């Protein structure tokens, strides 16, 4: 509980009221099956931790300017991998528990997960060359 409060203070996350939920619980389009929005802890467990494929996890927030640049850039590069890697998007305002569990203290934070384990991570924005290297390392290409 103390960790949750510390993270909320650090990120100034609303815990109750109209700002706590933004109603962004919708799926992915048919053209982007390699990218999906995490819907909660059990969804994260099923689709990320238990995934047979490597997964890039993008912890982001709607109010985060760098996230709005990084997210689409990362989605495009993941799509180019043609299913070799998946991308899970986790909104920290909606899923504070996951942010705390994975020690996210700033956004954007991107984790590389393989067989349920975090094998690499970075915080902040990266250019396309750095992102391609990050993905190739995760895939093993």
Automatic annotation (TrEMBL):
UniProt cross-references to InterPro entries, sorted A to Z: Thioredoxin, Thioredoxin-like_sf, Thioredoxin_CS, Thioredoxin_domain
PROSITE patterns xref list: THIOREDOXIN_1, THIOREDOXIN_2
UniProt-listed CDD domains: TRX_family (cd02947)
Domain Thioredoxin: 24-140
Pfam families xref list: Thioredoxin
GO cellular component terms attached to this protein's record: mitochondrion
UniProtKB keywords: Disulfide bond, Electron transport, Redox-active center, Transport
GO BP term (any one): cell redox homeostasis
A GO MF label: protein-disulfide reductase activity
Similarity section: Belongs to the thioredoxin family.
Name of the protein: Thioredoxin, mitochondrial
Gene: Txn2
